[in-house]
TrEMBL record:
The keyword Signal is assigned to this record: yes
Solute-binding protein family 3/N-terminal domain ranges (all copies): 52-292
Gene3D superfamilies: Periplasmic binding protein-like II (3.40.190.10)
Leader sequence segment: 1-21
Species name: Peptococcus niger
Matches recorded under InterPro entries: Solute-binding_3/MltF_N
A Pfam family hit: SBP_bac_3
Protein name (Swiss-Prot/TrEMBL): ABC-type amino acid transport substrate-binding protein
Organism domain of life: Bacteria
Residue stretches spanning the membrane: none
Keywords, sorted A to Z: Signal
Amino acid sequence: MKLKKMLATVLAMALAVSVVACGNDNGGNASSEATSAAASDSTGLATVEKGKLLIAMEAQYPPFNWTQVDDSNNAAPIKGSNTYANGYDIQIAQLIAKDLGLKLEVVKLPWDSLSPAVQSGTADLVMAGMSPTAKRRETVNFSEPYYLSQLVIVVKKDSPLAKAKTKSDFKDAKITAQVNTFHATALQQLTEADIQKPMKDFSTMREALKSGIIDGYVSEKVEGLSAQNAIPEFTFVEFDKDNAFKTDPNDIAIAAAVKKGNDALLEAVNNALKNISDKDREAIMEKAIKDQPAA
């Protein structure tokens, strides 16, 4: 009996040691995993990739963004390619990334895939000349604006439309805008125009205007300046206050889109934007227009 009791005691002690050892092993792994998770985000921000700020854009909406073959003029690399992105969005994003201690990288996607990219965790931000409309706010959050613009109509210099003063002057003219933008919504205000099906991007619209497929397209003033600078035969029509397009203030603002729930990143982006003065923003836009590639 004593021998059985002794054996039982020894077995019980061995089991206890085994349980404690297992407990310590699990605890050690948990601690290691926690340390690893903290190390994966040394900035204290939840980003898609350690040490990087991934921004989604089309990279074909100059002067806000475009694609180029090298890293000149402080361009950012496009993920999964040997090309780079540059433009106003990029230069503002570079300043944000620097402020956050992160390296900037671009995720190049079609326009309709930009907001879903931050929702799915493919990118941290959308910085693509995007307006913080009420519809978009349903799926993503937005930073404070980093640019304000207004609508114009880009036309050919030698077209009678170049002298237009009112929307009625565009009667029967073939006018379009980019699909799924507030430009396309504003397009409907040209009630006497021959409104064309919205097109996928600005490169397509510029080509359509050059070839005569369309007579003009609705855009923002800065893109109109960009188009005029890149293509000498282009100009733009800017209506006076009484004839201007009716727009929501959010429509003419440009802001960064952030995944809902990522409040720390949103706050960090807004704090970084506070460090960029209006004067600096104007200078960055002027340089973007100057540096943009020829059409």
